[in-house]
Specification:
The complex is a heterodimer of chains A (about 325) and B (about 250).
Chain A (H helix, E strand, L loop, with lengths): L6 H10 L9 E9 L5 E10 L4 E5 L6 H9 L6 E6 L2 E2 L4 H6 L1 E4 L11 H11 L6 H10 L15 H13 L5 E5 L7 H16 L3 E6 L2 H7 L2 E6 L2 E7 H8 L1 E8 L15 E4 L4 E7 L5 H16 L4 E8 L2 H12 L1
Parallel strand pairs in A: 3-8, 3-9, 6-7, 7-8
Antiparallel strand pairs in A: 1-2, 1-4, 4-5, 9-10, 11-13, 11-14, 12-13
Helix pairs in contact in A: 4-6
Chain B lengths: L2 H17 L1 H23 L5 E2 L2 E2 H32 L2 H6 L4 H30 L7 H25 L3 H17 L12 H7 L3 H14 L6 H25 L6
Antiparallel strand pairs in B: 1-2
Classes of the chains: A alpha/beta (about 325), B mainly alpha (about 250).
Protein name (chain A): ABC transporter ATP-binding protein
GO molecular function, one term (chain A): ATP binding
Keywords (chain A): ATP-binding, Nucleotide-binding, Transport
Chain lengths: ~325, ~250
């Protein structure tokens, strides 16, 4: 992805320096939602989405992900608070706000008997754009739907229907794209394809907000990650910083002969014994796992050898976003 | 005004009817023809004339009204219920269009379809009986206003219904009985006095009567009363729809 490097550093400085911070493309403040049933889906949510980023919203089922997206896109009325989309209030200036947004819903919905072509063309018109068959052709080709354009939607597979929904959302050339669980129930290959499509969109300047259950997806795609739980935004952080901050790395050594205790010579290192003394575990901060980290690990291994400890095997493991996420959600609940 | 969106909805809905031409057009024409055979030929041969008009010709406006009412309601209710049922309504709700434009697209298409159908039935009737339309302009006015008003009613039903059963309920339990008892096939003069009085509470009587007047210059109630009744219907439907959209009822939780 060499072609994206010019924009990537720019984005980073934008989000990290508060002084030169540009106006967010979406500004959510004090957003709350209580359904008629009494269920409080969102509790005073504040969130800013930066222009051109891929923002992943993570959260367990019922955390409020879909409600949040639905309010921004106009499907659900908020109980309180406001959403401003590129300077336009989503309620008082809904036309301008909604025209900028494309939404790919979680549910696979389709006008069963329509053709792919007609349904995508309809979407463009619905958003008030003059017909542009060239653009629709481009969208369909980018999503490998061109060959299926004359097919009725009912004849398509689940993965293809998902692509049609994306095509519909892109038909009016939105600046902001919401993907609500875009790869739920999609096979691995198609998931990779979709990630590719999303990256290309981002490279063309589209801001992307996706919700997902798959931590792998957020880890792979996102620039920033927000975690929502119980209707509250628990954390918003750049992915890399999040991984650095909360991620720890472990070096595991499988010993040739079990140890009763960590030798005193090595006591100043954060070493622990596991599996009845058969395994020696070294835990260290992933953020120091750069050049200096490697030096310290090789030094550690020298010390271990010098202490007369022999090992059969070793491996390292970095805590994944999933570990971080599970810990976060567990902490709060 | 997002005319592009209104046009998109309108064209999309009309295209749907084009695809289902058989049920949209041919089946109402066939059922109307059956009414002519049964009521016009079989029964009509025993009833000489009603207020100076042959029975076959007398029932034409009533038949058109019957079709207009039922088709407007079913077209419009299905048109909005279906996307709600399949979930594709999300797209309409997320689009930069106003409630008014949504109604214009969906109800406009439904009303157009039933108005066209009304004219097709009129053409079909021409094969069976001699037709003279005394007030063609008023005839068109009644036709269009009725199609519009009952399409609005259908739209309301389509939004209210959360199951196919409910979708059928109102047309089956209310619209059809009111239409059959609304003087489609008879003049209310034929009824005993008590029932004449009861019938006047049926709004459809006013529609059929006014529509028939535009054909033959004969009516059960005054034309002004008929127009006022359609106006009231229209106003009530519009008020309900604006309430639906103001509160987000069944559309935006």
């Amino acid at each position: 992805m060499n072609h994206e490097t010019p924009t990537a550093p720019a984005r980073k400085t934008q989000t990290e320096s508060h002084a030169a911070r540009p106006a967010p493309v979406i500004a959510i403040s004090g957003l709350s939602k209580r359904y008629d049933s009494g269920f409080e889906a969102l509790k005073h949510v504040d969130l800013e989405i930066q222009r051109g980023e891929i923002f992943a919203l993570l959260g367990p089922n019922g955390a409020g992900k879909t409600t949040l997206i639905s309010i921004i896109c106009g499907l659900v009325n908020a109980t309180g608070g406001s959403v401003v989309v590129d300077g336009h209030d989503s309620v008082t200036d809904y036309r301008a706000a909604r025209a900028k947004i494309g939404l790919v819903p979680q549910e696979l919905t389709s006008d069963a008997f329509e053709t792919v072509w007609n349904t995508v063309r309809f979407s463009r018109g619905l958003f008030g754009k003059a017909p542009n068959d060239t653009h629709i052709e481009q969208v369909l080709k980018a999503l490998s739907l061109w060959d299926k354009r004359k097919n009725q939607l009912i004849t398509l597979s689940g993965g293809m229907k998902r692509r049609v929904l994306i095509a519909k959302a892109l038909a009016h050339e939105p600046e902001i794209l919401f993907l609500d669980e875009p790869t739920a129930g999609v096979d691995v290959e198609l998931r990779r394809d979709m990630w590719e499509v999303v990256r290309e969109l981002r490279n063309s300047g589209v801001t992307i907000i996706l919700t997902t259950h798959y931590i792998e997806e957020a880890e792979e795609m996102a620039d920033r990650i927000g975690v929502i739980n119980g209707g509250e935004i628990v954390l918003v952080r750049e992915k890399a910083a999040l991984m650095r901050q909360l991620g720890s790395k472990q070096l595991t050594l499988h010993l040739q002969t079990p140890l009763a205790s960590v030798p005193p010579a090595l006591a100043h290192h954060p070493l622990t014994l596991a599996e009845d003394g058969n395994v020696l575990v070294y835990t260290y901060d992933a953020s120091e796992a750069g050049d200096s980290g490697h030096v310290s690990i090789s030094a550690l291994i020298n010390e271990i050898e010098a202490a007369g400890i022999r090992f059969k095997d070793l491996h390292t493991k970095q805590s994944s976003l999933e570990d971080i996420f599970v810990n976060l959600v567990r902490e709060r609940s | 005004m997002n005319l592009q969106a209104v046009r998109s909805i309108y064209v999309f809905e009309m295209a749907r009817a084009g695809r289902t031409l058989l049920q949209s057009l041919i089946s109402p024409v066939i059922s109307t023809s059956l009414y002519f055979v049964v009521f016009g030929a079989a029964i009509g041969s025993r009833i000489q004339e009603v207020e100076g008009v042959s029975y076959g010709a007398f029932i034409v406006p009533g038949l058109i009204m019957l079709m207009l009412l039922t088709q407007s309601v079913s077209n419009a209710s299905f048109g909005i219920f279906f996307p709600k049922f399949t979930g594709t309504i999300y797209e309409v709700l997320s689009a930069p269009i106003s409630y008014f434009e949504i109604v214009l697209g969906y109800v406009g298409a439904a009303a157009s379809k039933s108005a066209i159908l009304g004219l097709v039935i009129l053409g079909t009737a021409n094969f069976f009986v001699d037709l003279h339309i005394q007030h063609p302009f008023m005839m068109m006015l009644f036709l269009l206003l009725t199609a519009l008003t009952f399409s609005l009613l259908g739209f309301i039903i389509g939004i209210w219904a959360d199951s196919f059963e409910k979708l059928q309920l109102v047309p089956l339990l209310i619209i059809t009985p009111l239409t059959f008892l609304g003087g489609s096939f008879y003049s209310i003069d034929m009824l005993p006095p008590l029932w004449q009085a009861v019938t006047l509470a049926n709004p459809v009587v006013y529609l059929v009567s006014g529509f028939r007047w535009s054909f033959y210059g004969i009516s059960d109630v005054s034309v002004v009363a008929s127009l006022v009744m359609i106006g009231v219907f229209l106003a009530v439907s519009l008020a309900v729809i604006s309430w639906i959209f103001r509160t987000g009822y069944r559309l935006r939780p």
